Amino acid sequence: MRVNRISRARRRAALGLSLAALAAGATTGAGPAAAQPGAGRPRAAAAAAAECSSAYRIEQKLSTGTTWRMCWRYESKSGLVLEGISYQPPGESRPVKVLASAKLAQIHVSYDDGKHEFNDVTDYDFGSGLMNLAPGECPGGTIKTVRVPNAWDPDHPNVKGLCTTTRARGHAYRLQPDYGTKIYQAQGKDLLVYTVNKVGWYEYITEWRFQDDGTITMNVGATGGLSPEDYDAGDGRGWPLGKGAKAYATSHSHNVFWRLNFDLDGSSKANVEQYDSVISPPARGQEAPTNRTTRTKVTKELAGDAKNMRWWRVVSTAGKNKDGHARSYEIVPGATTRYPGRAFTKHDVYFTEYDKCELYASHNPRCPDGHPKSVDRWVNGQTLTHPVVWVNVGFHHIARDEDQQPMPVHWQGFSIAPRDVTAMNPLTPAALAGQNGHVEGGG
Fold first, then answer.
1. What CATH number did the domain enclosing 361 receive?
2. At the N or C end, where does the chain have fewer CB atoms within 10 A?
3. Residue range 398-430, pLDDT digits in tens
4. Is 441 part of a structural domain of the chain?
């Protein structure tokens, strides 16, 4: 059972936290007053970092010239919360505000035999299990000390558990015009921010990647170990591990939710649009099939399902790029296995009107009595003026021999990608800067 696993894991984690905290002697807090909800945003005219003290500010200029700025704070349930996120690529005189806040909103775990079901973020205080990071886990970066609210070891709540570093991404672009001798290419760089949190036998790596082209990728990687209590399913739902077919690991689902509160160009007011494309057979005289894309303005709260050639974007009402096009961010779903067992996991994305009490996708403890407790029930026809985006990505874990021991990381996540945030590729080399809207010959 999860209770037994939590008890043993907490005792082990508490000992590790105590030793590391005593060695570090750190006293850093969980977050300044300025970084609490509603206060962690930069002023509209500011070109500097978000409003928080230096201890809670993340500011990184990548080698390709892009600067990301944000504040961080830490809570006992979601763990790391990022606020006041802005992006300033080369050629932009001031930061472009993107998100007011971003956080993990639930990890729902349901076992295939129907005996156990958990909401790790809200029911097990996911954030309380922050783990100390070894120096080798944050290569080339900085490990920040976090004061953990409701820590497993309340006498030693200071944990060296937040890594900020940079990583190479591979090609950002490559162009060889007209097969000439000149090659334009650049290697991309990311700002990587992550923590590791332990719940039972699982250790979750919560990763935020901020790319130099303006893309933000959110991932959760599950690793750690298979729980001994998950063996011997005995009902056909498990997978045999070890010699022969005597021990079985029970299969289960991980349904991870993220909550994104946009702040495009410094305004909480935004529009949501859905795009769908339909391909028709070639008409008479045409060489190829036709593809017609239609836009639907999402004016009311929506529980959305990903389909082939369907996507959504959140559109700024307060700013445009240098071409006069409204800035927006497109939601780019990752690989997912949708779990139909609960109403709140039946959809891939939810757009809800902002409500200060709606913070977690299920078993939400912040709302008053009588207010629905899960995101599916918040979609009730309200007009969207301040949309909050909830993204659900599922993974069905059928254990294998290779999962023991320790278990390799399995990742699930998604991205938001800039669409018309800048007039051209934000990493465009100077020699190609004149090719906006047309292509010149060259070699």
1. 2.70.98.20
2. C
3. 989 999 889 999 999 999 999 999 999 999 999
4. no
| Residue 367 domain boundaries | 2-429
Sorted by sequence, the CB contacts under 8 Å of residue 144 that are 6+ apart come out as 28, 55, 160, 161, 162, 163, 164
3-state helix vs strand vs coil in the chain, percent to 5 = 15, 45, 40
- Candidates 83, 125, 122, 428; CA nearest to 260 is 83
437 found inside a domain: no
- Amino acid identity at 10: R
- Adjacent-strand bridge partners of 203: 198, 223
Asked, for residue 417, whether it belongs to a domain, the answer is yes
Residue type, 170: G
Q: For 257-302, how does the pLDDT look when each residue is reduced to its tens digit (9 = 90+)?
A: 999 999 999 999 999 999 999 999 998 888 899 999 999 999 999 9
What are the residues whose beta carbons fall under 8 Å from the beta carbon of 334, sequence distance 6 or more?
219, 393, 412, 413, 414, 415
Could you identify the residue written with the tokens 């289960």? Answer: 252
Task: Show the beta-strand stretches assigned E in 200-343.
Answer: 202-211, 216-224, 238-241, 247-250, 252-262, 270-280, 290-298, 302-304, 310-320, 326-332
Report how far residue 340's alpha carbon sits from residue 319's, in angstroms, rounded to the nearest whole number. Answer: 39
- Give me the amino acid identity at 80: L
Say whether pTM exceeds 0.90.
no
Report how many domains make up the chain: 1
Centre a 10 Å sphere on the Cβ of residue 67 and count the other Cβ atoms it contains: 19
Inside any domain, residue 239: yes
What's the CA gap between 389 and 260, in Å, rounded?
Answer: 5
**What's at 281, amino acid-wise?**
P
For the segment 41-87, what is each residue's pLDDT rounded down to a tens digit? Answer: 333 334 444 589 999 999 999 999 999 999 999 999 999 999 999 99
37 phi/psi in degrees, rounded to 5: -50, 130
